[in-house]
Each structure stands twice: as structure tokens, then as C-alpha cells.
């Protein structure tokens, strides 16, 4: 990095729980940021508030169930031009940190940077399947005035005229500590997607219930080599395909006013 070029300041927006060790690890991991805003997803208490304040971060209580909407509320409130978005238990390597600082120090920096994740499931690194291809908005300039959609992989404002780039280094994701937590998150996502489809007046049919989950499984497990990840690859392909079935089941319930 050229010493003659000052590094712009970064604001971090991240989700957290009341687990003290995870909070400290998260804050230490992004200590290069000039502002750290943590969104507390646990509504029971603010037991972590003293720790967060001691570490120089800001704690915000989540007020909206949808996490992307909660992020959108905070984007325009941050102090700095560059914004870094993190999910629960995502950690930045030294190589990724250096890449981030190098990119934003460039006067010709892109406005939006995407990231791919290294996904860990049942404490195993996943090397195949659809997860290695997924990317999402990770780092962007506030001036872009970007708004995230319910699908975190895409902005709701498609800024096709903006320069964007996928970062070379991946982010390490330990988001789900066990099967139940991952399955719960998928169920919540299925409900959110069903609501959006209902708003678009989409009517579910046998293709959605039978063929779409089947083709999704075949794509993840065979076409994208998920079987090479062993039993973890099979479990991921199965429950993600089942989540698609649940999406259209929730949609059917909504259309029939049973939900």
C-alpha cells in the first residue's frame, strides 16, 4: 500500500448475539475499522453492552425481524464513506484485510465489492457445492446509496453503471454452530421468500413442489460436486432442497389463508 495515500475510514455493520467470547473475537477481528456497529439479535437483555462499549463499538438492538431491512436502516447512519457488512461469525483473514485496505486506498476504487465465503459446516470446511459460487455485497461506498434486498446476494437497486469487483480473498464463515440453527435459518428464509412470492401473486404448482427441489438437489450434490464433501455435502444438498419445498408450502398456506 502506498504510504502517500491515506486509507479511507471504514464503518462495520455486523450482527451479534449475547455470547461474550464471540463478541470480543468479532471486534478484535475488525479492529482496523474506525466505527463498529453491532446489531444485537437477542431481545432478552443487553448483557453485552458494557463489553461492547469498553471495546469502543456501538450496540443497536434489532427492531425488525428481517435482518436485511435492519441493515438498511443503519447504512445511512454510519459515520464513514466505506461500509463493510458482516454476517454472524464471519472472520476476516490478514490477507483479506490487506486486500480491503489496498482497494479502498486506490483513488480509482470501484464503488461495490463482492465477496465469496469459505463455508464451514459441522466444523468441516466445505470445498464443493453451490456455496463456493455464492457471492454477496460485502464492501461499498455510502455514496452508492445501495439498498440490500431480502436476497442478500443482490442489491435491490441494480447499479449496472457502477464499477464492481469480486475480491480475491474469501471470508471465513462459521455462521451456524449446529444443524438445528442452520435449519431454523433456512426455514425463516423460506418464509420470507414465500411472502415475496405471495406479493407477486405467484401460484405454486407441482413443478415447485416436486421438480424444483429435486433439480436443486441434483445440481448441488452431483453437478457442483457436493458429494465430494462426504456426508456434510449430502446433508447440505438435502436440507437446502427441502427448504425450497418449504418455501412453496408456505406460499400455498398463504394463498389459502392458512398461515
TrEMBL record:
Annotated InterPro entries: Nucleotide-diphossugar_trans (IPR029044)
Q: State the name under which the record lists this protein.
A: Glycosyltransferase family 2 protein
Q: Which organism is it from?
A: Flavobacterium cupriresistens
Amino acid at each position: 500500500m502506498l504510504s502517500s495515500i491515506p486509507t479511507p475510514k471504514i464503518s462495520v455493520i455486523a450482527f451479534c448475539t449475547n455470547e461474550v467470547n464471540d463478541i470480543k473475537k468479532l471486534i478484535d477481528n475488525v479492529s482496523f475499522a474506525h466505527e463498529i456497529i453491532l446489531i444485537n439479535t437477542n431481545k432478552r437483555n443487553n448483557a453485552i453492552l458494557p463489553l461492547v462499549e469498553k471495546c469502543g463499538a456501538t450496540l443497536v438492538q434489532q427492531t425488525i425481524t428481517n435482518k436485511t431491512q435492519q441493515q438498511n436502516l443503519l447504512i445511512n447512519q454510519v459515520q464513514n464513506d466505506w461500509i463493510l457488512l458482516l454476517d454472524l461469525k464471519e472472520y476476516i483473514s490478514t490477507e483479506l484485510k490487506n486486500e480491503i485496505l489496498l482497494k479502498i486506498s486506490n483513488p480509482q476504487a470501484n464503488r461495490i465489492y463482492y465477496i465469496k465465503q469459505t463455508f464451514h459446516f459441522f466444523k468441516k470446511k466445505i470445498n464443493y457445492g453451490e456455496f463456493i459460487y455464492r457471492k454477496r455485497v460485502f464492501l461499498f461506498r455510502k455514496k452508492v446509496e445501495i439498498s440490500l434486498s431480502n436476497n442478500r446476494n443482490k442489491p435491490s437497486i441494480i447499479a449496472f453503471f457502477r464499477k464492481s469487483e469480486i475480491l480475491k480473498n474469501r471470508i471465513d464463515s462459521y455462521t451456524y454452530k449446529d444443524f438445528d440453527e442452520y435449519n431454523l435459518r433456512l426455514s425463516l428464509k423460506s418464509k420470507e421468500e414465500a411472502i415475496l412470492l405471495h406479493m407477486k401473486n405467484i401460484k405454486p404448482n407441482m413443478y415447485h413442489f416436486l421438480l424444483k427441489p429435486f433439480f436443486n438437489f441434483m445440481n448441488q450434490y452431483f453437478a457442483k460436486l457436493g458429494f465430494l464433501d462426504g456426508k456434510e455435502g449430502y446433508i447440505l444438498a438435502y436440507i437446502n432442497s427441502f427448504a425450497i419445498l418449504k418455501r412453496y408450502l408456505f406460499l400455498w398456506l398463504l394463498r389459502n389463508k392458512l398461515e
